[in-house]
Write a structure and sequence with these properties.
Blueprint: E1 4-7, E2 12-16, H1 22-39, H2 44-60, H3 62-73, H4 77-101, E3 105-106, E4 113-120, E5 123-127, H5 135-146, E6 150-154, H6 160-173, E7 180-182, H7 190-194, E8 199-205, H8 208-220, E9 225-228, E10 233-237, H9 243-255, E11 265-271, H10 275-288, H11 307-322, E12 326-329, E13 344-347, E14 364-370, H12 373-381, E15 385-386, E16 388-392, H13 396-405, E17 410-413, E18 428-429, E19 432-433, H14 438-442, E20 446-453
Parallel strand pairs: 5-6, 5-8, 6-7, 8-9, 10-11, 10-16, 11-14, 13-14, 16-17
Antiparallel strand pairs: 1-2, 3-4, 4-20, 9-19, 12-13, 15-18
Helix pairs in contact: 2-4, 2-6, 3-4, 3-6, 4-5, 9-10
Length: about 450
Amino acid sequence: MAIATVNPTTGEIVQRFQALTATEINHKLAIAQAAFQQYRLTSFAQRRQWLENAALILEQDAEKFATIMTLEMGKTKKSAIAEAEKCALVCRYYAEHGEQFLANEYAETQAIKSYVSYQPLGVILAVMPWNFPFWQVFRFAAPALMAGNGAVLKHASNVPQCALAVAEIFTQAGVPEGVFQTLLIDASQVEQVITDPRIKAATLTGSEPAGASLARLAGQEIKPTLLELGGSDPFIVLPSADLEEAVAVGTVARTMNNGQSCIAAKRFILHEAIAQTFLTKFQAQFANLKVGDPMAPDTDIGPLATAEILRDIVNQVDRAIASGARVLVGGQPLESPGYFYPPTILTDIPPGAAILQEELFGPVAMVFIVKNIDQAIALANDIPFGLGASAWTKDLAEQERLIRDLEAGAVFINALVKSDPRLPFGGIKRSGYGRELGISGIRAFVNAKTVSVN
């Protein structure tokens, strides 16, 4: 895929970018390694100041950064502003807590002094996706830089201006030159980077094939990786739930970011006692969402990010309909310039349909009706993914059962699944491994060095 800004609202190419040559990549990695050797010796107090500076820049220029995000991948501008502000939050979180998270941990042994010292690994490769083009980078970069690591970013090829803007934020914040660099490269060039001995580890948020490819290359080099991949999150609603709130949150959970989120609710599993009431309200909510110009303040859903993503979602829905699924609302791409697809609800999906094992990366909700909590949990777990799960019930025993038995990296009871700097984030099964955010996020790429003094 060419590195270019293509406005998904119109389909027009805004700007093309030239990929780095192999020689240029090598030069940038040399700069990164030299910068790391100095950066690892800086104090936590100094790193804290740089992250706080970055947070201030993100807040002050949130509208500017939001315009870039919306231009490149089509998210509504209001949600892009919120994304920039959330990036400031994660910077401040690790500025405040990073030193404490990496403090020496002492243990009583026969030695005079024994402890674990958390030290940076080196330069880390981050391969990041387009759907949250600032947040995905900052939730990696803030803890990585606070820990004393260097970083090189290979961003998605359709958000190059976002990638360059992120690097510029760290430069303006005072982070030494070379510590954080954006590499404008295509997917075929990732192998050169991950196999370079100056790269010590890698993190990837993206598709299963991309994650498997990176993990294979890193494994051959004996380098640690962290993968956050796809999801098909269940949204379970049981009879005791607050239906009004569940419908409102469920609508947001499926359509946020134009439906392009790994932790979006994609499979709505409804108890038969409340299914029809929920569906009636849910369908009305979907029908009232405004699809249009993502720059406009009253737009709820903008375009999908690329023509390929639009083709994929059209193909998936068409195949589901052909297999017997019924469309309650939506179901056809809009006849307009750009990559627009309307909020869609599918029900009566027959067992064995291919779509049941796939991720839908667009504003399409699949609805299922079950007789009891046992069926709900079994259906929720009958998927290759295990990222997040949202379940709605006021029954405490049901809550405990759902928390225990749902196969996911995160379970949210009576709430929207979301990432929070204070809590670890990641999945199981084919949704990946490892954890970002929280104390786990800053310890993902450090050497837990055992020290014994006698």
